[in-house]
Amino acid sequence: MMNNPFATAYSSDLTDDELIRQTMAGDRNALDTLLRKHQPYIYNVAWKMVQNPDDAADLTQEAMIKVVTKLGSFQFNSTFRTWAYRIVVNHFLNEKQRGREKFFSRFEDMAFALDSIPDHDMSALEQKESKELIREMNLSCMSGMLLCLNREQRLIYIIGEMLGGDHNVGSEIMGISKDNFRAKLKKASRDLYQFMNNKCGLVNKDNPCRCHKKVQVAVNQQVIDAKNLLYNRAEYATFQEHIAEDADFMFEEVDRQYAALYQGMTFKPDFDRKAFINRVIEDANWQSKLNLQ
């Protein structure tokens, strides 16, 4: 999609630049518009980084405050996309661990957690009746697998595979060479694929692990809240809906078996924008930081 700042075809940099100029001239509405454009992408990267939506909201707000407070130093000699998302990426990389990051830092830990949930077989009718919970289990499990990548790998995978950023965009945002971005993306991809191919029934039907076998115990143990689903909600979109149709992915055909699963993960497109953006602007004390009156 043209509005996806990670897409090669992103065409909003000129619009971004004009909004920045208007902001520097004291137009709060321009700053509001600029932040609202980028908030969904910053938030959804944060959400996949830490898994917990409240932690992701805090992380997003902190990163956006940094962007606002540094906006006066933007010199227009690079794209706003590169400049702003480097600030965001550096913040995400350097922040303290949050929530489930502390518990799922290795694939071995994830495997142990899955093995610790007893199987509970479901009939075809039960699976049909519980399809929303099974999908929730699927998304929760895949989110946990992302946490088994280190933070840099996670960011590179989210940018390169889930949001369709190619090696040009990805290397600029991550501040590494194109070759390095490609190599790190391939390593993250292979790590995920190897784990899922050895463990997950979604990728390899010979594996015993199936989401429908785990879901009842997960609900009983309150791993999944059946009354308040975290991922599988009707108002959410998917990453796939926010990727350009001609996104240039760099994987071999074998990787496509599972990559589509991650592109189908939950993307939250809508927010209580006014309240969130107001908090960012107020916390950033934008006028004094930009020497505006």
List the helices and strands and how they pair.
Blueprint lengths: L12 H12 L3 H23 L2 H18 L9 H15 L12 H10 L7 H6 L1 H17 L3 H12 L4 H8 L3 H22 L11 H10 L16 E2 L17 H8 L2 E2 L5 H12 L1 H4 L4
Antiparallel strand pairs: 1-2
Helix pairs in contact: 1-2, 2-3, 2-13, 3-4, 3-13, 4-9, 7-11, 8-10, 9-10
Describe this structure in words.
With 293 residues, the protein is an all-alpha fold. It has one domain: PhyR, sigma-like (SL) domain (Butyryl-CoA Dehydrogenase, subunit A, domain 3), CATH 1.20.140. It is 60% helix and 1% strand. It contains 14 helices and 2 strands; from the N terminus they run αααααααααααβαβαα. Strands 1-2 form a two-stranded antiparallel sheet. The longest helix is centred in the N-terminal third of the chain and has 23 residues.
Strand line-up of the largest beta sheet: 1-2
- What pattern of helices and strands is seen along the backbone? HHHHHHHHHHHEHEHH
Secondary structural class: mainly alpha
Mean pLDDT: 86
Query: What multimeric state do the chains show?
Result: single chain
Number of domains: 1
Rg over CA atoms: 20 Å
Q: Could you tell me the number of beta strands?
A: 2
**Helical stretch count?**
14
